[in-house]
Amino acid sequence: MYISETRGADAAKGGVAGRGATLRALSGNVLALGMVSLLTDISSEMVTAILPLYLFYQLSLNPAQFGLLDGLYTGATAVLRLVGGHVADRFRSRKLVAGAGYGLSAVVKLGYLMAGRSVPLLGFMIGLDRTGKGLRTAPRDAMISLSAPPEAQGRAFGVHRAMDTAGALMGPLAAFGVVALVGAAYDAVFVVSFCVAVLGVLVLVLFVREPGGTARERPKVSLRDSVGLLRDRPYRRVLIAMLPLAVATVSDSFLYLVLQRSVGLDAGWLPLLPVAVSAAYLAAAVPFGRLADRLGRSTVVIGGYAALLACYALLLVPASPVILVVVLALRGLSYAATDGVVSALAGPLLPEERRATGLAVVQTGQALGLMVASWAFGVLWSAQGSRAAVMVMTGALCLALAVAVPLLRKAQA
C-alpha cells in the first residue's frame, strides 16, 4: 500500500478509526521490541556518551582521528545491514538474526575492557559493536512493520522509537552517574553497559515472536528477488533521496563537541548533552508518528531535515546557553521526524517476504553516507576549523534537500 493510499484510508475512517489503528499498532510484539531497544539503548548510549570524552580528551585524538573512529562507529560495517536483512528474509528467521546482532553488541561491551588505551583495538571493538547493530536493525524494523497494519506504520514506529529513545535518555544519565561515583574509571561503565545489554537479549528471546507465520509457511527469497526491489520506482526514489541527506548529516559526537567548545562547557558535562536530544526525541516520536500517518510520511521526513538545517544554522551564530538548548532540541525533533518515519515510509512499499532486505538497503545507504560525513567533517575541522566545517555541511544539506524533496514527494504520490 502506498503512502497516498494510507493517508486516504486514514482520512476516510476518521478519528475513531485512527484511535483503533493506534491500539493495533501497540501489539505485544511492538512493545516487546520496544523494551529490547530500550534496554539496548541504555547500554549503547552509556558507551556512546563517554566515547568523545574518552577519545578526545583522555587519549588526545585530533579531530581527523576522531572523525575516522566516529565514521567507523557509524557506518564501516554498513554492508552487514544488507547481510542481516537478506539472511533474515532468505532463511525466514528475522528474530534469530536480530538476536545474533543484539548478542554480539552485548558481548563487545566487555571487549572494550580488553582494548584499554589501544586505539586500534578500540577501533576493532567499535567495528564489532556496529556489526551487531548492522545485523539487527533491518530484521527488527521488518518485525515492527509486519506486526502493525499498513495504516498504522507511523504509529508503530513512533511507539518503538519512543521506547528506544527512553533508553537513549537514560543511558547518558547512567554513564554520568557511574563516572560521578567512580571517577574516570571507564571500565565500570563498560561492565554496567554489558549487564543491561544482556537483559535486552533475554527480553527478545522470551517475549518477541516471529511475525508472518512459521518459516515453513513463507517462501524463500533469492538474491535475484532482492535485487529486483530496485525496479520498484517509489521505493527507488526513497533510497536515492536518503543518500545525499545522510552524506550531509553531522554526527552527534561532533555536534556535541562543537557545542561544548563554543559555549565553553567543562568537558565533564559532555555526556549529558545527548540527554536533551533524547528528551526532545522522546516527546515527539509518537506525535510525529501519528502525524506521518495523517499528513504523509514524506512530508514529516522533509520537515525533520528542515529542522536539522535550522540546527546547523544556529551553530553559526554566537554561542549561548539558549542556543545550546535550542540546537539540541532541534536535533531531537529531527530524529523524531526521520528515524522511524523513514522505515514507516519505505516498509509498505515492500512485499512482506522482502521487507527486511529492502529496509536494509535504505539503512545501508544512510549508514555509508553518515560514515563519509564523519570523515569529511573531521578532515574539514582539522584543516579549517569547526566553524568552516559546519558551514560546508550546512551548504551540503541545502543541496541534498533540493535533490531529495521532489523525490520524496513523488514516492508519496
UniProtKB/TrEMBL annotation:
Domain (Major facilitator superfamily (MFS) profile): residue spans on this chain: 29-412
Keyword Transmembrane helix tagged: yes
Any Gene Ontology CC annotation: plasma membrane
Subcellular location: Cell membrane
Pfam families: MFS_1 (PF07690)
InterPro entries cross-referenced by the UniProt entry: MFS, MFS_dom, MFS_trans_sf
The keyword Transmembrane belongs to this UniProt entry's keyword annotation: yes
Record-linked PANTHER family: C-METHYLTRANSFERASE, MAJOR FACILITATOR SUPERFAMILY TRANSPORTER
Name of the protein this chain belongs to: MFS family permease
